[in-house]
Amino acid sequence: MTRYNDRPDDPDRRRLLGGALAVAATAIAPGILLVAPRAAGARMPTEPVTDAVRWGLLIDTTKCEAGCDHCVAACQTEHGWTDEPLSRPDQDAQWIRKVEVRDPRTGYAFSLPMMCQHCEYPPCADVCPTGASFKRADGIVLVDKHICIGCRYCMVACPYKARSFVHEDIEGQKAYSPRGKGTVESCTLCVHRVDAGRVPACVEACAARAGDAMLFGDLNDPESAIAKRISQIATTRIRADLGLHQGVLYHGF
Fold first, then answer.
1. Taking Cα atoms as reference points, which of 203, 222, 244, 245 lies closest to residue 59?
2. What is the pLDDT of residue 194?
3. What is d(CA 205, CA 115) in angstroms, rounded to the nearest whole number?
4. What radius of gyration do the chain's Cα atoms show?
5. For residue 171, what pLDDT is reported?
6. Residue 236 in contact with residue 61, Cβ under 8 Å?
7. Which portions of the chain are predicted below pLDDT 70?
8. Which of 2, 175, 198, 205 sits most deeply, having the most CB atoms within 10 A of its CB?
């Protein structure tokens, strides 16, 4: 008789559980399911994150209109942050912001969203004394609020001003996006959505209500829409000279 290991990370056990879940998702009556079907691309809680996937974001600045802030508004709604209660500009949340860029020599101007660039070699993680700033194997850079001591070294190290410090008590937090006074925060690439097989809130909002300028997907998968698009157009990374190999790429400048 085959005996399965009781360890949660045992591959045989995961296969057995996966099969059980598949059976549990069968219909017990027309239109009624015991468990909702698993979303395409969703990761089961028992499945480890691996470097087989490299999540990335492509932003087409030629489709990003000046003054449009649907991506910012979507991020605020999704994660429950806002700049309104803050009185000092240096305390503004930096999860995502719109930046207006102008070439002083030619006058050419364009607009782009700026957020954590989810670097392959994140300087924020290099300087963090507790390991609170870290990069997942799939490229998403996060902050563990449980061990963040609020030293703000990561804010100084980030070349993109993509992190901010929570100075005030937080109310109305989202369970999937915890925040806390005395800790640093930044774009999570909506990791809770990604693990559920969905796209980040900013990408969804841009596609639905703006210029569809943002494309999210697996950079390691040559068959993904983002990988195919990158192979067809010229792209750049902001401050590519730093050699950080960011997961966020831009087109149009």
1. 203
2. 97
3. 16
4. 20
5. 83
6. no
7. 1-41, 43-46, 83-91
8. 205
Residues β-bridged to residue 177: 174
| The pLDDT of residue 173 | 87
Query: Residue 196: exposed, middle, or buried by beta-carbon count in 10 A (0-12, 13-18, 19+)?
Result: middle
pLDDT digits (tens, 9 = 90+) for 220-252: 999 999 999 999 999 999 999 999 999 999 999
In the prediction, which pLDDT does 1 show? Answer: 40
As annotated, the residues of the chain forming the CATH 3.30.70.20 domain(s) are 55-251
- Burial label for 13, CB within 10 Å (0-12, 13-18, 19+), is middle
Look at residues 58, 60, 56, 59 and name the one whose alpha carbon lies nearest to residue 217.
56
| CA–CA separation, 44 and 51 (whole Å) | 16
Closest CA to 70 of 168, 163, 208: 208
CA distance 85 to 169: 11
Q: At residue 12, what is the residue type?
A: D
Contacts within 8 Å (CB) and 24+ apart, 124-133: 124/154, 124/155, 124/157, 124/158, 124/163, 125/154, 126/157, 127/153, 127/154, 127/156, 127/157, 128/153, 128/154, 129/153, 132/184, 133/184
Compute how many other C-beta atoms are within 10 angstroms of the C-beta atom of residue 173. Answer: 13
Could you give the CA distance from residue 100 to residue 113 in angstroms, rounded to a whole number?
9
Q: Which CATH class is domain 55-251?
A: alpha beta
Question: What is the structure's pLDDT at 82?
Answer: 81
